[in-house]
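BUG: 3D viewer hangs when loading the predicted structure for this chain

Environment: internal workstation, default settings.
Expected: structure renders.
Actual: progress bar stalls at 90%.

Input used:
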Amino acid sequence: MAVTGANTIIAGVNKAGTTSLFVSLQAHPEVATSSVKETRYFLPARYGEPLEPASVYESYFAHAGDRPIRLEATPAYFYGGEPLVASIVDLLGSEVRAIVVLREPVSRLVSFFTYQKTRLRIPESMTLDEYLAAADRLSDADFADPANERYFGFRGGCYADFLPAWVAAFGSRLRVVFFDDLVARPEIVLQEVATWLGVDPDAFPAPDLSSENRTTGFRFRGFQRAALFANDRLERFLRRHPALKQRLRAAYYRINGRAAREVVPQTVRAELEERYREPNVRLAGQLRDAGVTEVPAWVPEPRGRPAIHRRSAAIARERRAPRRAAAGTLPPSERDQES
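Structure tokens produced before the viewer hung:
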């Protein structure tokens, strides 16, 4: 029997705007979110380990009341394959929905790599070349150890290796969103997602996407470590008080924040684009077969298939410009490190 947990899950991917989408949907009066964004409840299935009792999962939604949508967001779920997908359906029932946000894989990799530094999981001095070399030395068996997730940056962008399990299990209950659209036309994406969920698309208190979890560098390592510890321990409280969290975050960035920008040599970027070429071609075919016909420019034409409709970047810029002036939309240069 399905438990009283989420009936909608943002299942992926890391560093693609999932936190911003989660927080923006949280503002809708018909949406109840989990007490922490990432419950990580189903992640043990990714590693062949048992889940905690269902009551643990239900506790994340104890405050949900009678709101029709109960939402959580753990983007690492996307990589769990059939075992994780099956565990979700088994526990939450056959009507559960999933949202997957996809981002151009090279940009996502760079953001993921930078984020691992800000979380103090890899050396601050490590170059992207060194990171890729370390990741390439790890086998599938090595990635069965959660400790190696920090090196999953490249593999995490091979979406075609993981999407089929979600399409097979969820079908029309799977919604694919693109990071490009979250940045270029956020209010339209929110309205489309709300309509798909069956709630009022005009009930959002603000028309724009909340800008959350941008990867920001730090000046003092010890201060950063203490801030990460406090953020993790206080997440349940801060999720209930988003305005307070925004003020605390802004104050911390003023004291210890700095720009976190990785300079990626063009040769490395070109190599990565070539390595992602084949997975992206497979992804294009999978999206076409799943009925996703409007895709960003980084998704290539599927081989031997009719052309996929691509949104014009010029149109996107024209749509975005007046909204930015009116609603304070962050430009892509400020959002490109979100998760």
